[in-house]
Amino acid sequence: MPALMTTMNAAPTKPARMVKARASLKLSMPTLPTLKKKAPPPPPPPAVGPKEIGTALAVTGAGLAASTALINAHVIDAPIAAYLNTVGVPIISAANLPELAIKWLHGANMGIVLTAMGGYGTYLGWQIRSGNGENETLTGDLVRELHPKLMGAMALFFFLGGQGGLVFMLIQDKPLLESPHAITAFAGLGLLAANGVLGKTMKSDETKRTLHALLGSSLMAVFGVHAALGLNLGLSL
């Protein structure tokens, strides 16, 4: 009798088959994918007004004025000529280039660099400012990654190519650093270097970022004038 009462009071046990079915049901339930929240759009860049444009133009004007003073002082003519006569002239003379190449090779090379690297690099810079820096370019780089690469490569090619242009002037027995083309060359390189430093140090400072964008466009205009002056110089030789 006590055993019967114990059996009656005990909690009913679920059949083993039902427990297994429920466990299997739990295991086979698909997990719903978690929906990713879209990142909020980047805030629009601050408006560019007359003050910001005036600052960029003032910096560009200061660069041109400093370059003009340097060229007109003629303090670097002799050292540059000595350096190029030692390093560049023997190499180019040994190459025995045709007259057409001596006259136009520098301009053709620099024109390609200005258009391909400088033009596209400037476009990418404004894309970054518009909030598209995370977009992918044709090279696989992000816009914000390719912009400094292109502008840095352009600066290097301009620095080396400028020396080539001076070597060609020496080979043709033409005076160095006595033309507006030389003034815009030194001004453009100086502004390009200054803007590169600004780009490295500006971080999230919107005032500096605005100046970097405007100064970049301004110095590209200087290089455009430089190219036109170079064409005129080449035609006059």
Could you explain the architecture of this structure?
The chain has helices at 2-9, 16-28, 50-73, 77-95, 99-129, 143-171, 180-201, 206-236. The chain is mostly helical and 237 residues long. The protein has a domain at 76-236: Four Helix Bundle (Hemerythrin (Met), subunit A). The radius of gyration is 34 Å and the shape is globular. Residues 1-8 have low confidence and may be disordered.
Helix content: over 70%
Mean of all residue-level pLDDT scores: 87
> Ends: how far apart?
128 Å
| Class by alpha and beta content | mainly alpha
CATH class of the domain at 76-236: Mainly Alpha
Task: Quickly describe the structure.
It is built from eight helices and no strands. The chain is mostly helical. It is globular and about 55 Å long.
What's the arrangement of secondary structure elements?
Layout: H1 2-9, H2 16-28, H3 50-73, H4 77-95, H5 99-129, H6 143-171, H7 180-201, H8 206-236
Helix pairs in contact: 3-7, 3-8, 4-6, 5-6, 5-8, 6-7, 7-8
Protein name: Cytochrome b561 domain-containing protein
InterPro entries: DUF4079 (IPR025067)
Transmembrane segments: 150-171, 183-199, 211-235
